[in-house]
Amino acid sequence: MKKLHYLLVFFFLGLATKAQIVADATSKDSLVNVKDESMNYQDQTLDDLSWHGRRFKVTAGAFFPTNNTEVEVGSNNGNFGNLIDFEKDLGFNKNTVSFTAAFEWRISRRSRLGTEYFYLKRTASKTLEKEIEFGDNVYPVDARVAAFMNNEIVRVTYGYAIISKPKYEIGALIGAHVLLGDVGLRLEANTQEAEYRDNFDFTAPLPDLGIWGEFVLGKKVGLYANINYFAIKINDIDGRLLSYNLSILYNVYKNFSITAGYTGLNIRVDTEKERLNGFFKWGYNGPTLAATYAFGGHVKFYKH
Length: 304
Description:
single chain, alpha+beta, ten-stranded antiparallel beta barrel, 14 strands
């Protein structure tokens, strides 16, 4: 009986030991499987985000800015010129609609190149309520004048992701806004002999430095933000700028998305040209609405 007792004890001890070994092995295998499945799930999830991390991205849409414009143009001898508020003094509408477009190329996981284009053409006609000196002419009170302001902005940027994760990126930005401006004023008279006009055009390359961030908020939703600033004097052009952008992306179908955001830019340019000196201050901010198409292969993100 005692021998039988010992045999049962050894049998259950052996069974328990074997069960523990099997349990440990099963637990380790389960953890490995869970980890592999989790990583595969993350990979599949990222691949499902057709709008995120693609090599190329094209955006085009409309911008609805509110403008504030001040211009002063005088002759080189300093005898002419006074500050003109284009919205208040010349009757320009503050609220306008313009076209904007952008292209981005992701060179690698951390590096990207981008270009942007913005165009705005504005005209106005008003009977002057104050005397205006512009260029070589004086426009008297009660005179009927026509004015125009055409602006084009071409921007080139290079961005580097200091932090690069599958669901978010934060980096530095270096680039340049090239502002092509043309402003003019014309006296409208009943006779051709009495009509005279002045215009002032310039090209101002304004470099900028900034920071940016891109975040995946959901399977179909993303967030992008950037802010940039710089001031520089190049030859006869002295300029400074501050720009910012915040936009939300919603993936509509496969590679197509829509973005809605808020953009602002404040520029000041002082320039000297033959015959004319000019001061140009222009600020705009407002909502944007655009369509985005992403294509090319996915950038490979590291999860650690």
